[in-house]
Amino acid sequence: MTTTFPEEAKNFRVLGHDATAGWGGGSIVEINKGYAYVGGVGSASFNGPEGFTVHDVRDPRNPHKVAEVKSPPGVHSHKLRVVDGDILYVNSERLAGDVGRNARTGLFLFDISKGGEPKQIGFYDTPGTGPHRFGVDNKRKLAFLPNNAPGWNKRVIWTLDIKDPLKPEILSQWGLPWMKADGDGETGDAAPHEEAITLHGPPVIRGNRMYCAWWGGGISIIDCSDLRNMKLVGHLSWAPPFPGSNHTCWPLGDRPYLICTDEARGKQKYWDAQFMWVIDARKEDKLIPIATFMPDREKYYDRPGRYGAHNILENLPAQGPWKDLVFLTYFNAGLRAVNVSDPFNPKEVGCYVPALENGRPAVQSNDIGSDEHGRLYLIDRAGAGMHILEYTG
């Protein structure tokens, strides 16, 4: 018997839906000049192609696919970022096993000046397995790649100068001190999943500090006043006793607190782990967890699919109507809006969980993006595509 659950909405209004985003199974979304670019999760945990889709969202009530770009054989292209409004970076990550043996790893560079007509105009090569969840800071003209590098074990931070987005230049390659290796170092995936120390990303800069999560290796605060000579100033790991999978570490506005997520694992559920943390960073060399958040376990834990956190809307402003809000994707518990005005006591103030219907295996809300109008774009990786939402709380 097929499992179904009705849609849930509290303080969210659905404006539009496009089930074709990411061929149904999306990973990440970027909005630029009325178009949504959606990386497809591909073969990682879905049955869609590798690559990305493009959607006209100028009328949010009538979103529709206008282009799709499929990746070469052996390449996983599920992460993308807009650079300066006219360039799109898309990762070229090697698929595991023989299928990815000959893959070219790095970044595809696309011209998106014509919106729905992306055109590849370059490629930036990187070694190893290629970049995973990378970031772009358009204000500072920087890109941050989690990528392998000689002399380091697993993925470390590549900080790139992208003043000329077609010719990125390496400013530094930096990892935690204990990731240093003799010789080339270890590449490959984060295995074993809960122990491997590898940058997940993306790092983010506030002032002269860089913040990032290291999968099985905790979170860190880095002095980045000199990007060519960065220094570790704070580190915290809670694995063990928790199973790790540190995904996101983001500063909360201009306050001395961090919002962190541990990604729910695909093959094992945890009743008491893989949630959102609030970390007190008032003393950078003594980071302390002060609160956690998870939705109603009794309600969602036994539903199909992963139960646990994934990512947040990567914008925690110091001012404005959202300055106290975290928009958090929680896989089978959908999207949660969490008020952190009191960081010691986070409170849920809204949620949106797409209906589970039409034979789909699960709700798996994977990521969330926004546009200049304050609309939210919720991406599902298990067949539901993209929901365009308005927060009404």
Can you lay out the helices and strands and say which pair or pack?
Blueprint: E1 8-10, E2 12-18, E3 26-32, E4 35-40, E5 51-56, E6 64-70, E7 75-76, E8 80-83, E9 87-94, E10 106-111, E11 119-125, E12 135-137, E13 142-147, E14 156-161, E15 169-174, E16 204-206, E17 209-213, E18 219-223, E19 231-236, E20 246-251, E21 257-262, E22 276-280, E23 288-293, H1 297-300, E24 325-329, E25 335-339, E26 347-353, E27 365-370, E28 376-380, E29 386-391
Antiparallel strand pairs: 1-26, 2-29, 3-4, 4-5, 5-6, 7-9, 8-9, 9-10, 10-11, 12-13, 13-14, 14-15, 16-17, 17-18, 18-19, 20-21, 21-22, 22-23, 24-25, 25-26, 27-28, 28-29
3D structure, described in words:
The chain is mainly β. The chain has one helix at 297-300, and strands at residues 8-10, 12-18, 26-32, 35-40, 51-56, 64-70, 75-76, 80-83, 87-94, 106-111, 119-125, 135-137, 142-147, 156-161, 169-174, 204-206, 209-213, 219-223, 231-236, 246-251, 257-262, 276-280, 288-293, 325-329, 335-339, 347-353, 365-370, 376-380, 386-391. The strands form seven sheets. Strands 7, 8, 9, 10 and 11 form a five-stranded antiparallel sheet that branches. It is globular. The mean pLDDT is 96.
Quick gist of this model?
Helix content is 1%, strand content 41%. By secondary structure, it is mainly β.
Question: What would the keywords be for this entry?
Answer:
393 residues; mainly beta; Methylamine Dehydrogenase, Chain H; 1 helix
